[in-house]
Amino acid sequence: MNFKIRKSFLTTVICLFMFASASADVTGELIQEYKAKGASTASSERGKKLWNKDVNGRSCTTCHTMSVKNEGKHKKTGKLIKPMAPSVNPERLTKKRKVKKWLLRNCKWTFKRECNAQEKSDILLWLSQQ
Ligand code: HEC
Asked: How far is the CA of 29 from the centre of ligand 1 (A)?
């Protein structure tokens, strides 16, 4: 390989690497953001508990069902919701804006309040491992 080719090859590899790390680890980035807002280390155990926590007959499982690997159904509209587990649905947790938007909305619907930075970290960590 001459020098020029080697250089462009290296540039490509570096770009691919940057692209992959920028787009793939939305969970990691958000957990860092929540840390900056006061959350301590995320715990998937706490995340799982919160996901299943029942508040006046509502929980995250109300629409997403008992298994995040299954298709869910919106409690009110009846609309189907694709599985939440990234292992089954690789599109999950890949768009920061989408994750933030729905965490806000769904915590409000389910718990009648916003989730705090710690809760969001915990839930995201657990979800990302499913
Ligand atoms: C009233 C029904 C409902 C409940 C209850 C609900 N969700 Fe959702 N959730 C949705 C819908 C609808 C979407 C968006 C449609 C889609 O992405 O398939 C969504 C999407 C999401 C996403 C976006 C994931 C991604 O990257 O695509 C996250 C994160 C999420 N919900 C978390 C939660 C958490 C945490 C709870 C419990 C606090 C919860 N949801 C409870 C209906 C619900």
From this structure: 19
